[in-house]
Each structure stands twice: as structure tokens, then as C-alpha cells.
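Quick sanity check, Ascorbate-specific PTS system EIIA component:
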Amino acid sequence: MIVKVIDRVESYKEAIKLSCDILEANGDIDGKYYEAIIGKINEFGPYFCLTEGVCMPHARPEDGVKSSNLCVLKLNEPVDFLGKNISVFFTLSAVDSSSHVETLRKIAEVCMNGEKLNLIIKSKNENEIQEVI
């Protein structure tokens, strides 16, 4: 898991691109993964918004995944994602449909725990966010 905290971005696409760039630099995905995510958004809308302030951009394993990982991009200033204000992007790369189940469980646990979610949304510290998750 890679955690990055930044102040702001101009658009949700910039946030997703940044998180994909981080995963790509780590060797987890290739460049076509970002394009696949944007294609899914264009086709289905913001379907991977999980709860207030949180989304989980992802695409299929065959869309450029090299290894499973998670980039947590936390914005200090929320960005509009097609009508939803998002502060936390859990950008997931998974090599198959079962290898990321534990990661999904952790994300769900955080999203269902208001206290943990609030800590992440308010935090400006990458290590603190990593500990919460």
C-alpha cells in the first residue's frame, strides 16, 4: 500500500491520474490502466464512489495490471467527482478477481467505521493514514 497526501487537484481525473502514476512508478500497472478507468467512468458514471468523500477507482486485471497494490491518495481539499465531493481515492490494482479480497475487506472496514474514516479524511499525515488502514 502506498499513501500520498496532497493539498488539491484541479479535477477528479487529475487525482486518478496521479494515483495511477504512483502505481505505475512502483511497477504495479502500465499506462493503459488509467485510460481503462476513465473509460469505465465515461460508460458507467461515478459507480465506484463508496461513501461520502471516498471512491475506489479500478479497472480489470487485463487493463494493465502487473501486480496487486493499493494507492491511497488523500486530498486536503475535496474535488468534485461528477457531483460528489471526494477526499480519498483508494486506487486499486488487482491481478485477478480474488487476490484483492483482503484489501477490499480493509477498505470496507474503514468506510463502515465513521471514526476511522474521519481520521483519514482529516489527516494530513501519510504514516497516520497507513496506521488507520
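Posting the structure with no commentary besides this: The beta strands are 2-6, 49-51, 53-55, 69-81, 84-93.
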